[in-house]
Amino acid sequence: MRLRQEYIDFIANLLVDKLIKEGYLDPVGDPKAIKARISRAITEDLKVEDKLDEEVKSLLENYTEVMRRENIPYHEMFRKVKQKLVKERNLVL
Fold it and tell me: Which domain holds residue 45?
């Protein structure tokens, strides 16, 4: 994951605190439970992207020599393949 769990928790805390302060969220129970759920949602979303990145790397391993021969930059091909998979799977990253 690109973000450490501590930073994800920090973002979730800021988000919930701001929503409560601005009156957009009226917690029925413990705000800590809401913060934990948001933190889990962010973490799960980031894991989906990490898994996708690993899949793209795996796909591109088969084309390393072709990309080298054709002088295609790895990062460009990575980005294009990732965009295509995101679109095919209707993912929001």
Answer: 5-88
